[in-house]
């Protein structure tokens, strides 16, 4: 049986040929909608703005409001639910009425189906309504497209100080998502040009008349160094001559000492600081026992150099940026938070894109930050990058995490112009403790008047200028030419071996004494910076030292000593927390010390040198004049804390002297031994008396009330 709402078969058969023109792929047309259109055709036919008797009429325009007013409620509902199908059915109806097709069943349906409707197809459109165009009907080939901005890296044949050039690159199809911000890529493609107005999204005659064009690259291939070799720390290649020079450096012995004296030889002394910078350049070994475990301890060490102006901090940072295989040098006074991390920008199409900052660009390298104390940014942005080695961002619908596996080497001046030893590093720099604890090594450089040192320093400066005037041309050729050679005739050239083991010494010499003794020998003929850069890149790429059980015992004992020394001052609110972060720093630095000699295993001497460097840092930050380790000095003190620290030192002095009586000179000696900064000492003594810490017993005599040696 036929459904009650089905159209007559004669009408449907007569319209089949017409439907094939409107629906070539879909024959399941709503018959009820078609009947409604056909039956109400007489009502909206007068609204047509063309003569249907003309064979060349192909488009009919109707007004939506007038069409709804002349139709029924069912027709209005059909127009609301599916307007495209209704318009197609109306076009079919017009074609049938044009050729005299009607509902009479007695007419010959076969003859009606042979109407040539291909020449008279009518399209119905509504004023102000844009037709829906399905994607399948679009006669265009869709491909994936991605635009990136490429910035050149510092090459060996390009002088420092030049602004890096940038160019846009278009990636298509399988090249899309082949790299992320911060990756080092090699792109091959075709250089093309585009009108700057059209590139900015503006069209028209004025845009086409513009004569300014922008160059871009249509990429054919993208080689990502991060995907090609995950352990590759730089993009430096090694020729046979480079391997011979590295072998020559190894065969001469005392490799670490030579590297220290070859880093910025123009700066007099500061050998321990240079040693710490060399260790930061070499870095530790990145290991993860389980590849699926996301928690991986960082292998990069961070170094902070703080001191008075004019001591060569910026020069050493410049030397580090020139020696590092991959380095980014920025100034803190001209740096923003987004400039260090990630910038969110909007392109010409209105979409958001990421631009890498200094830390992301220095991935697997070194980021040198000068004037660290003058950074007008929130230091919280550096916490994740320095500890987790990544930068997370969630802005404008973009949620991602970028790698920032870099060593941060910063230089800062004290806020007051000169370093105040009575205050902590944090107070001298106005820096928060969480950020300060991220640095593995903190060096303090003080400009103290010393007649002998000043004489040697002046002689060093004068000799450097005299030597530079005589050998300026030769030095430029030796230091900068890639084809230059630096060899020693005393040693044979062999290929460098990663299993090289240094000779064991009978007794351990302090690193500072050893560097001071051989400065005259190694500073005369330092290793050129070109080969120092090659050596560091070779060590980072091919040498991955591991910690032996004996070295682990040495580092554990040193860590326990620092931990025990910190417990004695745990009641102080300003004490440095000695945690496992310091133990991890010792491990990283010991592995870097082994890399300096291309050793696959950390020997006993390596952690001892690291301990010497760490003790030198603690001597400047935590040790007062009486050589007692006081972690409370590492933090700044308010007046109340100064009073508390001074009273605690008086109690120790009273216990040592077996008396609680002090003269004014004795009180002054105690405050001098603490290097405690007090504006007016007599006012400070009056505060102690008002707080009942001191009791005046006579002219110039004071008694410590809290001492256990109270005398009547």
UniProtKB/TrEMBL annotation:
<dbReference type="Pfam" id="PF00493">
    <property type="entry name" value="MCM"/>
</dbReference>
<dbReference type="InterPro" id="IPR027417">
    <property type="entry name" value="P-loop_NTPase"/>
</dbReference>
<dbReference type="InterPro" id="IPR001208">
    <property type="entry name" value="MCM_dom"/>
</dbReference>
<dbReference type="InterPro" id="IPR003593">
    <property type="entry name" value="AAA+_ATPase"/>
</dbReference>
<dbReference type="InterPro" id="IPR033762">
    <property type="entry name" value="MCM_OB"/>
</dbReference>
<dbReference type="Pfam" id="PF17855">
    <property type="entry name" value="MCM_lid"/>
</dbReference>
<dbReference type="GO" id="GO:0005524">
    <property type="term" value="F:ATP binding"/>
</dbReference>
<dbReference type="GO" id="GO:0005634">
    <property type="term" value="C:nucleus"/>
</dbReference>
<dbReference type="GO" id="GO:0017116">
    <property type="term" value="F:single-stranded DNA helicase activity"/>
</dbReference>
<dbReference type="InterPro" id="IPR031327">
    <property type="entry name" value="MCM"/>
</dbReference>
<dbReference type="InterPro" id="IPR012340">
    <property type="entry name" value="NA-bd_OB-fold"/>
</dbReference>
<dbReference type="Pfam" id="PF25051">
    <property type="entry name" value="WHD_MCM8"/>
</dbReference>
<dbReference type="InterPro" id="IPR056875">
    <property type="entry name" value="MCM8/REC_WHD"/>
</dbReference>
<dbReference type="GO" id="GO:0006310">
    <property type="term" value="P:DNA recombination"/>
</dbReference>
<protein>
    <recommendedName>
        <fullName>DNA helicase</fullName>
        <ecNumber>3.6.4.12</ecNumber>
    </recommendedName>
</protein>
<feature type="region of interest" description="Disordered">
    <location>
        <begin position="467"/>
        <end position="505"/>
    </location>
</feature>
<dbReference type="GO" id="GO:0006260">
    <property type="term" value="P:DNA replication"/>
</dbReference>
<dbReference type="InterPro" id="IPR018525">
    <property type="entry name" value="MCM_CS"/>
</dbReference>
<keyword id="KW-0547">Nucleotide-binding</keyword>
<keyword id="KW-0067">ATP-binding</keyword>
<feature type="compositionally biased region" description="Polar residues">
    <location>
        <begin position="482"/>
        <end position="500"/>
    </location>
</feature>
<dbReference type="GO" id="GO:0042555">
    <property type="term" value="C:MCM complex"/>
</dbReference>
<dbReference type="InterPro" id="IPR041562">
    <property type="entry name" value="MCM_lid"/>
</dbReference>
<dbReference type="GO" id="GO:0003697">
    <property type="term" value="F:single-stranded DNA binding"/>
</dbReference>
<keyword id="KW-0238">DNA-binding</keyword>
<comment type="similarity">
    <text>Belongs to the MCM family.</text>
</comment>
<keyword id="KW-0539">Nucleus</keyword>
<dbReference type="Pfam" id="PF17207">
    <property type="entry name" value="MCM_OB"/>
</dbReference>
<feature type="domain" description="MCM C-terminal AAA(+) ATPase">
    <location>
        <begin position="255"/>
        <end position="461"/>
    </location>
</feature>
């Amino acid at each position: 049986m036929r459904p009650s709402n089905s159209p007559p078969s004669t009408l449907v058969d007569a319209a089949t040929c017409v439907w094939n023109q409107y629906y070539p792929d879909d024959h399941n047309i709503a018959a009820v909608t078609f009947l409604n259109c056909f039956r109400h055709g007489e009502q909206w036919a007068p609204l047509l703005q063309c003569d249907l008797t003309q064979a060349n009429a192909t488009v009919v325009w109707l007004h939506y409001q007038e069409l709804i007013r002349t139709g029924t409620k069912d027709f209005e509902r059909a127009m609301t639910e599916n307007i495209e199908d209704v318009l197609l059915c109306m076009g079919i109806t017009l074609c049938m009425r044009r050729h005299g097709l009607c509902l009479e069943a007695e007419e010959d349906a076969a003859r009606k189906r042979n109407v040539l409707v291909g020449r008279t197809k009518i399209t119905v459109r509504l004023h102000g309504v844009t037709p829906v165009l399905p994607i399948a009907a679009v006669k265009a080939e869709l491909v994936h497209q991605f635009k990136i901005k490429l910035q050149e890296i510092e090459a060996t044949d390009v002088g420092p100080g030049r602004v890096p050039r940038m160019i846009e690159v278009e990636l298509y199809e399988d090249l899309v998502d082949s790299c992320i911000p911060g990756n080092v890529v090699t792109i091959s493609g075709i250089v093309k040009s585009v009108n700057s107005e059209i590139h900015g999204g503006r069209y028209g005659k004025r845009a086409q008349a513009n004569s300014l064009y922008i160059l871009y690259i249509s990429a054919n291939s993208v080689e990502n160094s991060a995907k090609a070799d995950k352990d590759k720390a730089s993009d430096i290649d090694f020729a046979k001559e480079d391997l011979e020079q590295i072998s020559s450096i190894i065969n001469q012995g005392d490799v670490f000492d030579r590297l220290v004296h070859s880093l910025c030889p123009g700066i007099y002394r500061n050998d321990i600081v240079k040693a710490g910078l060399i260790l930061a350049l070499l870095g530790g070994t990145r290991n993860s026992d389980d590849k699926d475990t996301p928690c991986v301890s960082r292998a990069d060490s961070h170094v902070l150099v703080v001191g008075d102006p004019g001591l060569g901090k910026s020069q050493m940072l410049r030397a580090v940026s020139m020696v590092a295989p991959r380095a980014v040098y920025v100034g803190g006074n001209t740096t923003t938070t987004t400039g260090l991390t990630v910038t969110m920008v909007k392109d010409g199409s209105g979409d958001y894109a990421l631009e890498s900052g200094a830390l992301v660009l220095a991935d697997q390298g070194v980021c040198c930050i000068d004037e660290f104390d003058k950074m007008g940014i929130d230091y919280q942005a550096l916490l994740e990058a320095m500890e987790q080695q990544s930068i997370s961002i969630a802005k404008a619908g973009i949620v991602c995490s970028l790698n920032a596996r870099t060593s941060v080497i910063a230089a800062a001046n004290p806020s007051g112009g000169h370093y105040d030893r009575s205050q902590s590093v944090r107070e001298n720099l106005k820096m928060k403790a969480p950020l300060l604890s991220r640095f593995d090594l903190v060096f303090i450089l003080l400009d103290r008047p010393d007649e002998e040192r000043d004489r040697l320093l002046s002689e060093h400066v004068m000799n450097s200028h005299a030597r530079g005037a005589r050998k300026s041309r030769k030095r430029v050729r030796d230091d900068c030419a890639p084809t230059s050679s630096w060899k020693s005739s005393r040693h044979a050239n062999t290929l460098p071996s990663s299993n090289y083991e240094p000779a064991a010494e009978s007794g351990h010499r302090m690193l500072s004494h050893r560097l001071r003794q051989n400065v005259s020998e190694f500073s005369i003929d330092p290793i050129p910076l070109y080969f120092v850069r090659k050596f560091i890149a070779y060590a980072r790429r091919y040498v991955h030292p591991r910690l032996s059980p004996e070295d682990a015992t040495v580092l554990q004992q040193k860590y326990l000593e620092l931990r025990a020394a910190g417990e004695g001052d745990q009641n102080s609110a300003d004490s440095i927390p000695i945690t496992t972060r310091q133990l991890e720093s010792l491990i990283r630095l010991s592995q870097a010390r082994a890399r300096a000699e291309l050793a696959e295993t950390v020997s006993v001497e390596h952690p001892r040198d690291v301990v010497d460097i760490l003790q030198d840092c603690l001597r400047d930050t935590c040790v007062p004049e009486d050589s007692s380790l006081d972690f409370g000095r590492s933090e700044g003190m308010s007046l109340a804390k100064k009073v508390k620290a001074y009273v605690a030192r008086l109690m120790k002095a009273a216990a040592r002297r077996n008396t609680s009586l002090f003269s004014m000179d004795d009180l002054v000696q105690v405050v001098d031994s603490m290097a405690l900064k007090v504006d007016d000492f007599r006012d400070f003594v009056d505060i102690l008396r008002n707080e009942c810490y001191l009791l005046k017993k006579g002219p110039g005599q004071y008694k410590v009330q809290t001492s256990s040696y109270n005398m009547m």
